[in-house]
Amino acid sequence: MNCQSIDSTVLVLLHHEGLKAYGGTAGIRDAQLLEAALCWPMLMAAGRGMENKGGAAGEPVEMDVADLAACYATGILRHAPFIDGNERAALLAMGLFLYTNGWQLGASPLDAAQMIQAAAAGVLDEARLAQWIRGHL
């Protein structure tokens, strides 16, 4: 799938606006972790981590927009690159990626936040998050 990736500068600006609106400590904890988080979807699309999609190691698996959006969210959650508000940043990254590629999440903000919280808690894995996203496009 040919999708446009997220620009880290845009995500940082959106994250900062979210902190101003809802509170929290501003700042990036580690810029390299932010870049690693934003590379996660492209690594998955390039054939890394095939076990999540049922493919053999090293065998490319076609990923759709929901898979990639879920990767952006879980990448932010795993790497926690911001000082505060990483769950909000994960939700922003997911929404920004979808919007940038012509899609919109049709879930309520509360439902979306609950899904991100479940993913952050380890209750919801990346594949199930992608399935949920797919059902709300």
Indicate the topology.
Blueprint: H1 8-22, H2 31-45, H3 65-79, H4 86-100, H5 109-120, H6 126-134
Helix pairs in contact: 1-4, 2-3, 3-4, 3-6, 4-5
Q: What keyword list fits this structure?
A:
137 residues, mainly alpha, Four Helix Bundle (Hemerythrin (Met), subunit A)
Q: Can you characterise this structure?
A:
The protein is mostly helical. It has one domain (8-134): Fic/DOC protein, Fido domain (Four Helix Bundle (Hemerythrin (Met), subunit A), Up-down Bundle), CATH 1.20.120. 59% of the residues lie in helices and 0% in strands. 32% of the residues are buried.
CATH topology: Four Helix Bundle (Hemerythrin (Met), subunit A)
Quaternary structure of the protein: single chain
> Which structural class is indicated by helix and strand composition?
mainly alpha
Count of folded domains: 1
Report the major sheet: none
CATH class: Mainly Alpha
Gap between N and C termini, in Å?
Answer: 16 Å
Q: Give the helix tally.
A: 6
In angstroms, what is the radius of gyration?
14 Å
Beta-strand fraction estimate: under 5%
Dominant shape: globular
Mean pLDDT over the residues: 90
How would you name the CATH homologous superfamily?
Answer: Fic/DOC protein, Fido domain
CATH architecture: Up-down Bundle
Helix content: 55-70%
Give the gist of this structure:
The protein is mainly alpha-helical.
